[in-house]
Amino acid sequence: MDKFIELGQDMVTLWVNYWPRYLVGIRSTLLLAISATIIGCLIGLVCGILNTIPYSPRDPAPKRILLKLIRAVVRIYVEVFRGTPMMLQAVFIFYGLPYFTDQKIMFRGTSGMWLAAIIIVSINTGAYMAESVRGGIISIDPGQTEGAKAIGMNHVQTMTSIILPQALRNIMPQIGNNFIINIKDTSVMFIIGFIEFFGQHRNIVGNNNMFFQSAAIEMIGYLCMTLIASLLLRWVERRMDGSDSYELVQADQLTMAAGTYSHPNRGTPFDEHSKEYQDRVSEGLKQRNGSTRGER
């Protein structure tokens, strides 16, 4: 128990002395995670749509070749950036571009560091989102696409008006998951010198050697950010779902005209136990009996 009390006192001391630097790190982490997630979702959306454009053997050869080439490029991009660590991707982008361009492309200063970090996290997120978008699109019932074609809608209209709105709701949990992952994975940007929440922790520890105490503050900070993000994303999902209470239509003129409606007290017109059916049978018997007597 004494150790926990001592740990708490050291954490309070660190926070009192360095809270502005911790808050700057939190701000940088959130800005990088939000911007990279948005850009990554756009990249994934484009890749997912390009990867699901349909074609058939009857289509012209240039169209089929172009779509196959696009799918191959998207597949290579997805497999490379999903199959390698983000830390190594950061090294290759930040140090590799200047190397292959003879220092013509370099990330200089604070703005260059921000640009490099956003590019790295966005491309990595886009690779994961590409497969999520593709899965969301193919999860929609093919009958909806066929119905859209039947009423004269082209592929672009079908995607924008029917498929994508439903696919977006289906992949919303994955978007939130990638955002939470980005909040944590921005910590690897220290490899290129980008200072965010974890980078501030490393600098503060260099001043006082209180590594574990500062790491405890970091853990609480990351946990708070991810919990708040989870709550906000669940709220967004509920807003997208709409209201839970729906009023069912009790009377439809077309259905009633077809004779298939159900009266709450009398049942359907074809129910042998309903009053309506019995009255109709009785009326028919009366008419038949009357006509028979007249003929006699």
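(the above was protein one; protein two follows)
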Amino acid sequence: MEQYDCIITGSGPAGLGAAFYLVEKNPGLKILILERGKTSSGGLRNDCKMNFTYPIGFPAENWDSKEAEYYLKMVIEKLKPEILEKKNLETYQRRSARLGVDLINIRQTHLGTDGGLLLIKKLTAELEGLGVEISLGEEMLELDHSRNVVITDKRTLKYRALLIAPGRQGFKFIQNIMDSMGVVYVDHTVDIGIRVETRVEHYPIVKDYYDPKFMFPERVRTFCTNSGNAHVVQERYKTVHDEVYYSVNGHAYSTKRQPNGLANFAMLKTVRFTEPLASGQQFAVNLGLQAMLMGGGRPLMQRVGDFRMGKRSKEKSFNDDLFDFSPSLSSSCPGDISLAMPSKILRYIWKSMKMLDTIVPGVLHPSTIMYYPEIKLYANKPEFLDRHFRVRGSVFFAGDGAGTSRGITAAWASGIRAAEGMLKITSNDKTTSVNTITRS
């Protein structure tokens, strides 16, 4: 049986952040990163947009501003981002304030999907140069935490400390691991919404502020804005019964690519369940399956002009008169999202979009497209044993799938926090016990 000091499951920002911290603090550690994909994955691959300001990406139950800023300094020191310039922010903020909307001033950088891939190659090459082993195409299947043993689809491994950080798509995987260890958790929050696509001239704020963060009443917000060479994409998910559904998302390439004149962003409503406690994941899965039923196995798309008229979009909605651009996700099914999305959620989102159209006039042009569904499954809330996100023995969690973050930079920061705990376990100082770690 092969043995490692530290095993990290997932090569996204949380896993990479932990690996760098571990190897830099103790170069003698034997470290393995497991990645089920054939290439390194995670948020760095898709658009690679990073925010460096609290509270964006930092769940309040796990972070306060002082702690977040402390770890953000380490993230910035490692990634060395070029912060994007913003213009005319005061004008948009005044318009927002009149409506009770917050426009948050965030330090941001954007590398684009192509730039993100280059960064991943650079980071993984650096880790391998420092002696970290990265095993692509190897999936963790089971965990025997009582014996510190991980079983993959290729071998059985022994560890001293284990970090599980599979990201958002590992939401259910982490739940299965928690069930196997008897870890208490809740799954009562989910983000449900749409992705909006329009011409840049209909949403000109992106020329001044690349990814504007609007926070509306009723827990609605804009999320993941893309412009330049921007595209709407679909992400494939499978239920526990092997049923397939798709969630839409957005990305953009770096400024090296010729702009296509489009912008897209998500409008998300956070839904938090109370008693009787339901599964946020199962709620979202059911919505995703319902959308697939209506779309013939494809996401739905509807022009704003049709939506306002109370009618479904059809094929001709995407080539007539005012409908002056083609959808970037043309494989979506023209339809009526009001038949698929719960009315209360849609009502809050539409109210917020009208506010947004007052702040940035033009976004609700008749040609604007609404894609559905956009679902974010990263709201697991495990019961952690300490501030390093330890859940059992020498097992730690980090990243979006574990609910310790909501984005690239916070995921990286949570990986560092977990790595601090892992170092305590792997330390040769026998006077240090994991049981002495307390929440600060």
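Reviewer note on protein two: Confidence is low (pLDDT under 50) at residues 429-440.
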